[in-house]
Amino acid sequence: MHIPDGLIDAKTAAVTAALAAAGLGMALREVQRQLPPRRVPLLGLSAAFLFVAQMINFPVLAGTSGHLLGGVLVAALLGPGAAVVVLAAVLIVQAFLFGDGGVLALGANLFNMALLGAVGGWWVYRWASRIWPGPQGHLTGVAFGGWCSTVLAAIGCSGMLAWSGKAPWAVAFSAMAGIHMIIGLGEGLISALVWAALWRLRPDLVAQPQTPQSGVPATGWIGYGLLVALGLALFVVPFACPWPDGLERALAKLGLERAELRPVVPPLAPDYQVPGVSHAAVATAVAGAAGALIVFGLAWLLGRWLVRSAGPNRIGAARD
Amino acid sequence: MRLELLSHLHRPQPGPLERLPAGPKLLVGLGIIVCTVLAPARQPGWVAALALLVASAVVASRLPIWFVLKRLLVLSPFVLGVALVQAWQAQDCAAWGMTLAKSGVCLTTVILLANTTPFTHTLQVLRRAGAPGLLMTTLALMYRYLFVLAEEAQRMDRARASRTFRASRRLQWQGLATLLGQLFARASERAERIYAAMCARGWR
Amino acid sequence: MTAAIQVRNLHYRYHDGTEALRGVSFEVAAGECVGLLGPNGSGKSTLLLHLNGLLPDPPASPPAVWIHGQPLTASSLAAIRRQVGLLFQDPDDQLFCPTVEEDVAFGPQQLGLEPAQVQARVRRALAQVGLAGYERRATHHLSQGEKRRVCLAGVLACEPVILALDEPTSDLDPRARREFKTLLRELPGTKLIATHDLELVVELCPRAIVLDQGQIVADGPTIRLLNDEALMLAHGLERPHILRHIHPHPDVGPGQGGAS
Fold first, then answer.
1. Hey, which end of chain B has fewer CB within 10 Å, N or C?
2. All domains of chain A in start order, with CATH
3. Complex ipTM value
4. Are B119 and B136 found together in one domain?
5. Where are the alpha helices (DSSP H) in C157-205?
């Protein structure tokens, strides 16, 4: 899901770069404040790990295979701020060294995959692991959080594509979000399996509170929350009501016309008065929510199954 | 494992572009990408001119053409997908043709830069440009240990495959997940040793 | 004259409770080259980590290690680290910068030297290990032997007076091993070499210490120790073949001339 150069226009790239820079800055500050010095090399090594992990193919059907993206996994192990830094390093190397993801699109990719995806998914993980203490909750959180992160990143991506005029929102959203709801299943499953494997091998690595629990100042989360809300407001919410057809022709002209048509500050509560469309929008929302619930149920079952199957085989069991 | 992406082209003698300093090269490349993205969609002349510029740079660099084309193909599925969507939706072909062309030019520029500039030089340029210290440390360590971890993963994968006699997708997934868990554990232990090595030479 | 290294009654326990070092005491005089032998798990690496204060964390009080008469405490940690250069077992752990130049310059930079001085030290250290001109090379492309030599250069660039080496020849091919041995022989200063390479000890270290299960079981002239077959076998070692082909007098070996 790395957006290459040429797929988003200059203003999208600029705005997302600004949002991503702000988010990365906040993450760096948080990491510097919270991370003990002996863990600093772990950031670089985790980035290398993530890069290599993304190259390992998990065979699905004949020919196709999936692979881990790992944002939520790293966030669960190291904390959300560290995950943002790690993902930034991975994306930079991927862009500069391999052309996987555009150089100008770095901000967009970082916003989607790190701020929207990894941090959003981490929130889900944290909520789940608090409600169900013990490995069951962690596994459910990692699995469901992994799925959520994929879907969230896809939604952000489609919003950016639509903002750039490369693809109309309805098409981009249904294609990207739809596909990634399936891909997200793989991400959730693999993340959970790897977390379970790590829990068996080195329970001290997963059990330790890597994330600052009580010490997080509220201002940190307000900052992240604002960034994400702003991004969603810019890229997703305005598209909830589709554009009239005539805009498609106007979208062919880059920049000028679009700026005139769109309000400077997009409405936070879009108007669903267009006849025949409101049903579609509501239906989409309901379908999405239902899908999420189903996936959550699957994640919960997966968590239980993994905990049970790992029970007596845990290598570190005697040490607890 | 898609490790072939890590195999950089090692050429017997460096081409002319490799001898140029990294900073200006990166700036020029960035400039080309910015111009390509900003080029008006309705005037293909601009993109054509940039494409010509990049193509002549590829020729000048003496990189094998098949290498460049292969990388282009490997990295393009997303672009093709979006272009297909545009072709299906839009009234004229110009839109998706332009998307393909722009992406192609940008991608080729990056491939060119990546293969004529050692990443360590890029890191130095970024450091001089004032990138945050923690990010630079992370990038440097990441690049340094990328190949180490990749080789470890490859060795573990081969060992796993040597003891796999049944084609069971479930066992394969379990095996790969364990491999990744083991890889992270080893990476974590190595990070501790690196911290000790850094302290031994006076860090912090 | 104060010993270069003084260790008195050193104890250390791992986090899971196993005792790694049980009352280790010894002294190394300035300029001596001592071999540290012992089976796997005897505590050799752990002992070396105590010499520059990496263990215990935080430093023990009262101190158990003295470097050139200075006790190893939290306040003297930085000063002692400058004096003791530690070469780690796995060069990939120690060689953590992307280029050779950056890695060798790391130590001098941490010392706070001027860029010109740092450059000079890097050049000198690389020349000392026979890798002049390797500055711009990427570290992950080097061979094992080259990596070890760059690690040594990185340590030498800090100009320590004591060198502690952990298995310096463990994964080298015969030629790289020979080159590294020659290098080590020519280095001045006090040296403590933990190794399984018994031939290396015979050739470079007039004195050897045998460690087993965290305790020193023997400490004396290398040839005499290694010729003691019973002692060697009892502690997971063996009498090296090289000793079968030299002077039968137990105290005389290569490079030692007359009786000790």
1. C
2. 10-319 (1.10.1760.20)
3. 0.88
4. no
5. 174-186, 198-204
- Same domain (yes/no): B95, B138: no
Cβ within 8 Å, pair B103-A56: no
Q: Are A89 and B183 a contacting pair at CB < 8 A? A: no
What letter represents residue A43's amino acid?
A: L
A217: tokens are: 């100042």
- Its pTM stands at 0.81
Whether A310 and chain B come into contact, CB under 8 Å, resolves to no
Question: How far, in Å, CA of A53 to CA of B153, rounded?
Answer: 9
C148/B contact by beta carbon, under 8 A: no
The partner residues of C177 in beta bridges, in order of sequence, read none
Contacts of C102 in chain B (CB under 8 A): 120, 140
Q: Is C35 left (phi over 0), alpha (psi -120 to 50) or beta?
A: beta
Which sequence spans correspond to the domains of chain C? 5-89+163-245
pLDDT in tens, chain B (204 residues): 455 555 555 555 567 777 778 888 888 888 888 888 887 777 778 888 888 888 888 888 777 788 888 777 776 677 777 666 666 666 556 677 777 788 888 888 888 888 888 888 889 889 888 889 999 999 999 999 999 999 899 888 888 877 777 777 888 888 889 899 999 999 999 999 999 999 999 886
Is B180 an 8 Å CB contact of chain A?
A: yes
Q: How many domains does chain B have?
A: 2
Of A284, A296, A287, the residue nearest A124 (C-alpha): A296
Q: Which CATH superfamily is domain C5-89+163-245 in?
A: P-loop containing nucleotide triphosphate hydrolases (3.40.50.300)
Q: How far apart are CA B97 and CA B48, in angstroms?
A: 12
State whether C111 and B202 contact (CB < 8 Å).
Answer: yes
Find the residue in C nearest to B199 (Cα): C54
Among chain B, residues having any CB pair with chain C shorter than 8 Å are 118-120, 123, 140-141, 143-148, 190, 193-194, 196-203
Is B50 touching A (CB cutoff 8 A)? Answer: no
d(CA B194, CA C157): 18
Q: How many CB atoms lie under 10 A from the CB of residue B155? A: 10
Question: What is the Cα–Cα distance from C20 to B139, expressed in whole angstroms?
Answer: 36
Mutate to test the interface with B, among C96, C109, C110, C111 (most CBs of B within 10 A): C96
Task: Tell me whether A31 touches chain B (CB under 8 Å).
Answer: yes
**CA A207/CA A203 separation, integer angstroms:** 6
> What range does the domain containing B167 cover?
132-200
B197:C94 CB<8 A: yes
Segment (H or E) for B95: helix B94-116
